[in-house]
Amino acid sequence: MRTNVFLHNACFLFLLTGFMIHSIEAQKTTGMGTGPWPVLSQIREYVYWLKDYDGNMTILVGDDGLLLVDAKSGKNAARTWHVIDSAFHKPVKILINTHYHSDHTGGDSLLVGGNVSLIMHGNCRTTLIARLDSIGRYHAFADDAKTFRENLKVPFGNEMVSLFHFGNAHTAGDVIVVFEKSRVVATGDILFNKIPPYIDVADHSNTENWIKILRRLGTDYNDCIFVPGHGSLANMIDLSKFANFLQYLRDQVAAAIAGGKSKEDAIETIDIQRFSNINDPRPNRSITVKKTIGLIYEEMKR
Predict the structure, then answer these.
(1) 148 vs 133: CA distance, rounded Å
(2) pLDDT tens across 133-170, in order?
(3) CA atoms within 13 A on the CB side of 200
């Protein structure tokens, strides 16, 4: 049986961008696993943000269905889909993957099929299928995914959704999703907001280009709300801070390499006191700023 959904009477103002966020809460139901419940918030008339411990999902509401950006890990799937179903009572029509990592695609197989279309970058599909195949996991849902190389326009409801691939960054197949009318950008893991980033060296990451993408987004979409892959909603200032963070680490690692330091020496000697506010609050996560330094070192020595 579907449950009632209510808007909290209170809402809070996100000062730096000036937008109002209305939190929406589904009645809690027993027998749906353990752990924290996802939090659903409305950020524009037709655009919502679902925040969970393992990452963010962006939801666009159309007349007869939903468009989702990322399906999250699947670990908390029962609660995720309960919250979505309770709030909207609409079927999922389109699912967009921002990259192949399991905390963004783990829920794909629960959604894709029938009338649900899956869209991702070509590199993302290649790596996703290879990864699933290597661990003996089902991947037929990804075999027929629609792919693109540089950009793609997807009309949906009252919105025009623009998909962009600006080259390798966090992975080889990162996708930026822009809701043009609503002025919302779902960045996937191009943006970690106040959380240390994982850098997928094995999938041909490129932190130099990653920084350029962040600068470009901050310039071209300076009036937008940004939904990061991990962390809270952001604005152009947050993008600039994250770009500066990556640039500082790249500069320090480059100096360490030039000075003949090993990865271990670089990790221990690079000064990171200025980034004491950047940490990963998610349970059982091992990504730290020092881990990020190590990954940047591996990438720059690759």
Answers:
(1) 22
(2) 999 988 888 998 999 999 999 999 999 999 999 999 99
(3) 17
Residue 159 in contact with residue 182, Cβ under 8 Å? yes
With tokens 């881990």, the residue in question is: 291
- The closest alpha carbon to 211, from 191, 187, 234, belongs to 191
CB atoms within 10 A of CB 145: 22
Q: Please check the confidence at residue 114 and state whether its pLDDT lies above 80.
A: no
Q: Does domain 5-241 have CATH number 3.20.20.70?
A: no
20, HSE (Cβ side, Cα atoms, 13 Å): 8
Q: How many CB atoms lie within 10 A of CB 14?
A: 16
* Contact between 191 and 235 (Cβ < 8 Å): no
Burial of 18 from C-beta contacts in 10 A (0-12 / 13-18 / 19+):
exposed
List, for residues 189-210, the tens digit of each pLDDT value: 999 999 999 999 999 999 999 9
- Which pTM value belongs to this model? 0.90
